[in-house]
């Protein structure tokens, strides 16, 4: 689950949120995408408190503030659109590139793996991160 707040980007792999709650939101988001509405909406009932809990509960969850983002861009591929983020986590070590895409379909056998991706306009998120960084200067 990709979470973007006013100050950070987080990717939650393990959450305390009930599966049914997440599944219902995902289906609503998918229906909006199918209608051509590529806006992201917050999950009802999932706020900063739940995000902080998820980040504290598992080291697999990733979070970095906008000021650690060194480069952010959208890449249009034949198969979908990718958000590419270069970030230096906590100023330690070499910066790492993270790629985010919105999955449209999965194959579940023999291993769970995405097969199709959405074409998403990541520009509003890119502008938000860049404007935050400009305001820091």
Number of strands: 8
Give the neighbour order of strands across the main sheet.
1-2-3
Q: Number of domains in the coordinates?
A: 1
Biggest beta sheet attributes: 3 strands, antiparallel
- The chain-level structural class is alpha+beta
Give the percentage of residues in beta strands: 25-35%
Provide the helix percentage. 25-40%
Order of helices and strands: EEHHEEEEEEH
Explain the overall architecture.
With 137 residues, the chain is of the alpha+beta class. Helix content is 29%, strand content 30%. It has a three-stranded antiparallel beta sheet, with no helix packed on it. The chain has a three-stranded antiparallel beta sheet with strand order 4-5-6, with helices on one face. Strands 7-8 form a two-stranded antiparallel sheet.
Quick structural overview:
This protein is an alpha+beta fold.
Descriptive labels:
alpha+beta; three-stranded antiparallel beta sheet
Task: Detail the topology: elements first, then pairings.
Layout lengths: L1 E3 L3 E4 L7 H16 L13 H10 L4 E4 L3 E8 L4 E7 L8 E5 L2 E5 L5 E5 L5 H14 L1
Antiparallel strand pairs: 1-2, 2-3, 4-5, 5-6, 7-8
């Amino acid at each position: 689950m990709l979470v973007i707040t006013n100050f950070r980007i987080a990717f939650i792999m393990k959450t305390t949120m009930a599966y049914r709650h997440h599944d219902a939101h995902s289906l609503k988001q998918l229906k909006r995408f199918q209608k051509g509405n590529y806006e992201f909406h917050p999950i009802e009932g999932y706020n900063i408190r739940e995000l902080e809990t998820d980040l504290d509960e598992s080291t697999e969850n990733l979070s970095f503030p906008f000021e650690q983002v060194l480069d952010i861009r959208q890449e249009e591929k034949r198969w979908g659109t990718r958000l590419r983020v270069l970030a230096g986590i906590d100023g330690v070590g070499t910066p790492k590139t993270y790629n985010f895409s919105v999955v449209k379909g999965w194959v579940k056998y023999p291993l769970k793996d995405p097969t199709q991706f959405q074409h998403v306009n990541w520009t509003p998120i890119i502008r938000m991160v860049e404007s935050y960084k400009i305001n820091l200067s």
